[in-house]
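Handout, section B. The chain below has 99 residues.
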Amino acid sequence: MKSSDTGNIAELIEMLRQDAVEKYKEEHGWIPTTERLPDQREFIESYVRSAYAAEFLVTIEGAEKATTLYYSQTGVWFDKQGEPYKVAAWMPLPEVFRG
């Protein structure tokens, strides 16, 4: 495999990931943080799935792509390094594909 093939595969994987995110958004929709934050049930369900912290799919203010961040019950969105972010919208993570 050539190094250029690796770049093309990485681009394809990113395109497929973004397509999956877009499809999920169409079916379930983003929840703006100005409307509401994760409730107790959503927090617990997400926490149990992650086993590290309550993880959600988010859009960070000013970002062009969705990503995942963790949410604390104190209202802070953060990454694995503990860096806080200002989130514009969120949604629960979709179920893992089981083919």
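Note. The CA atoms of residues 28 and 43 lie 17 Å apart. Compare this with the example in section A.
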